[in-house]
Amino acid sequence: MTKKTILAVDDEEHILELIKFNLEKNGFQVITSDNGEKALELLARNPIDLVVLDLMLPGIDGLEVCKEIRRMEGYNKLPIIMLTAKGEETDRILGLELGADDYVTKPFSVRELIARVKAVLRRSEDVKKDNTKVLKFKDIVIDLEKHEVTVGVKQIELTLKEFELLKILMENRGKVMTRNVLLDEVWGYDYFGETRTVDVHIRHLRKKIGDDETSEYIETIRGVGYKMK
């Protein structure tokens, strides 16, 4: 089996060494960068399967790097796990809205980081393999084989997590999906973060499918979760 290649980006040398050592110990190939500019150059030259990205970087910060990755051809759905400081909730939410798939708060447990890396990669692979059908609801169409979403005649660019959330809601149309169930289904493991992560992704998903004002497709069940009408 080909080793997955992970790009780790952090300006603290000891953290990069810690990440590199433990990921390699778990069977991954690791490329490192201590700044955003170099990270983008490495992405342009190397096939990368996942990025572990610190938000606080010199020069181009992690949020800008995340934004640039989503613009890069072939990398618009590349899994990204952010590293954030404890008090950076606003930046964390912004990062998720820009397309990051998950986050780990510093100081982090190595076991937690490894679990999240494996889970995000597993979900990414599951999406690639799931080519059994096309899902339709009103004018939303999900082509699971092509991993494409269209609303009417317009193709919509979704992140991996947004795609998975929409897919699960459509597969369970009419059924209320709690935030904890969505966390478990989409993130694929016992999530250590807050259920607010789901709300952030749903809000961004709604905006992309034109549902942020009308709530034509997704209904919020206050205090519980969401369902596709």
Polypeptide structure, described:
The model has no long low-confidence stretch (mean pLDDT 86). A hairpin with a 2-residue loop joins strand 8 (148-151) and strand 9. Helix 6 (160-171) crosses helix 7 (179-187). The protein is 42% helix and 22% strand. 37% of the residues are buried. The longest helix is centred in the middle third of the chain and has 20 residues, at 110-129. With 229 residues, the chain is an alpha/beta fold. The radius of gyration is 17 Å and the shape is globular. The chain folds into two domains: 5-127, Response regulator (Rossmann fold), CATH 3.40.50; 134-228, Winged helix-like DNA-binding domain superfamily/Winged helix DNA-binding domain (Arc Repressor Mutant, subunit A), CATH 1.10.10.10. It starts with a strand and ends with a strand. The strands form three sheets. It has a five-stranded parallel β-sheet, with helices on both faces. This is Stage 0 sporulation protein A homolog. Residues 132-229 form the OmpR/PhoB-type domain. The modification 4-aspartylphosphate is found at residue 54. Residues 132-229 bind DNA.
